[in-house]
Design a protein that fits this description.
Radius of gyration: 27 Å
Number of helices: 2
Strand order of the largest sheet: 1-2
Number of strands: 2
Length: 99
């Protein structure tokens, strides 16, 4: 869920950068700050968005690695649990077998 939000944020930043690059040097651009818009310099906004994009990519990579570690841990625990269940059923069937 967190990774999806980060990826969505990255896509939004990409779209914003794309639109901002279409703006001419003479065009007035604004930055959203809370509930208001503030006039800003195009170059400053591009730099800010590129930094935000880089941060988003880093967070996405970190979350992907965390997700993979969790998946690996789950597989390992599942294997241990299955082994434990097998050994218990094997030992209980040995006890119930008449000798």
């Amino acid at each position: 869920m967190q990774k999806q939000q980060v990826d969505l944020e990255g896509a939004e930043v990409d779209k914003a950068v794309s639109e901002l690059k279409k703006a001419g040097e003479e065009d007035t651009v604004y930055k959203s700050t809370g509930t208001i818009l503030i006039r800003a310099k195009k170059d400053d906004l591009l730099k800010e968005l590129e930094e935000k994009k880089e941060l988003s990519q880093t967070r996405s990579t970190v979350l992907s690695k965390q997700e993979q570690r969790v998946r690996d841990n789950i597989k390992e625990l599942q294997a241990k649990l299955e082994e434990s269940v097998k050994s218990r059923s094997a030992s209980s069937s040995e006890k119930s077998s008449p000798s």
